[in-house]
Design goal:
four-stranded antiparallel beta sheet; about 325 residues; Gyrase A, domain 2; alpha+beta; 3 domains
């Protein structure tokens, strides 16, 4: 029996002992980092059956756990949340059990359903890999290798965002101001070179916004009507229509970026078994969005963007696609 199951059993036992109520289930969550604790019991759902103050209920259960579960060292209660602190001895015993088990974590792979996919990196092709990508790559690769060493069949993948308005921004800036420069002519890695043009686009875009605002446009109007943004949107429409010139530029600049990424991956010592590209899958996504619109799951706003309303699920409206 793992520790959460043991605590759950004792919580049910405590509630039955204290209030003569049998709980069907108990809700746990990780303890928030700003509170002391290893696991947190949520008492609010219990109040449907137990008419008492949530803090008093949490305190009473906490005292019962300290007395009856040797792994529970102490507790604290914040509103209706019982934060449980486990003893050092519990962790030491757990680690000793792992150290003494030569087969710990190993899996016997019998068919394709036993495989694990680990996805990491997954960059955009309009700017270079950065420090955050290093963290993501090393963590993802390490997890994959640990799982593989444990006997699992593992596929290391990345989903590359290689299309969209952000890609066209870099393309348009290079087309206007690049003067034909390449990674070879500049000595820059391809992803760095393309990223420079994404930054240049943003600088020119802000200049145009400021000029439009000075002419009397609102900031929102200026952002939407800036000529350089409209040109990038037109380029994206041409890409989706299969325009040969736009497609050719896209393929050339994306290849620069792919080559730059590969240099970084080789330096880090990470690799992938399979790459997935948004340019190969976006039409499937568009079909799903179209079906969602038809069924009333999604809705379209005046600006053409497509949204889903998740307020009933405790979230808000989420943008799923934008033309």
């Amino acid at each position: 029996m793992n520790i959460q199951n043991k605590i759950e059993q004792k919580v049910k036992e405590a509630v039955k002992h204290l209030h003569q109520v049998e709980l069907a289930q108990v809700e746990f969550q990780p303890t928030r980092k700003d509170f002391e604790g290893d696991i947190t019991l949520v008492t609010f759902p219990m109040l449907r059956q137990i008419k008492t103050n949530p803090v008093q209920l949490g305190s009473a259960i906490g005292e019962y756990l300290v007395e009856n579960v040797e792994e529970v060292l102490r507790f604290n209660v914040v509103q209706g949340f019982l934060n449980i602190v486990l003893s050092n001895e519990f962790y030491l015993s757990s680690f000793e059990g792992i150290a003494n088990n030569a087969d710990f974590g190993k899996a016997e792979v019998t068919d394709a359903s036993d495989t694990i996919m680990v996805e990491y990196s997954s960059p955009n092709t309009n700017k270079p890999l950065h420090l955050g990508h290093i963290r993501n790559n090393l963590l993802g690769f390490s997890v994959a290798e640990i799982l593989k060493a444990s006997g699992n069949k593992v596929y290391k993948t990345q989903i590359i965002n290689d299309r969209g308005i952000h890609i066209c921004k870099s393309m348009l800036a290079w087309e206007r101001w690049g003067n034909g420069e390449t990674p070879e002519s500049t000595g820059l890695k391809g992803d760095k070179l393309v990223g420079n043009y994404y930054v240049l686009f943003d600088k020119e875009y802000k200049k145009e916004i400021a000029a439009l605002i000075a002419e009397g446009k609102t900031e929102e109007e200026a952002k939407a009507q800036a000529p350089i943004l409209i040109a990038a949107q037109e380029m994206l429409i041409k890409w989706e229509a299969g325009d040969e010139d736009v497609k050719g530029l896209w393929e050339k600049m994306n290849q620069w970026v792919y080559d730059g990424f590969e240099k970084t991956y080789n330096t880090l010592g990470v690799d992938f078994d399979k790459n997935y590209y948004e340019s190969n899958t976006y039409l499937l996504g568009k079909d799903v969005v179209a079906e969602g619109l038809e069924k009333g799951i999604f809705f379209r706003k005046d600006d053409g963007s497509v949204w889903i309303d998740l307020t009933e699920d405790g979230l808000d409206e989420k943008n799923r696609a934008q033309k």
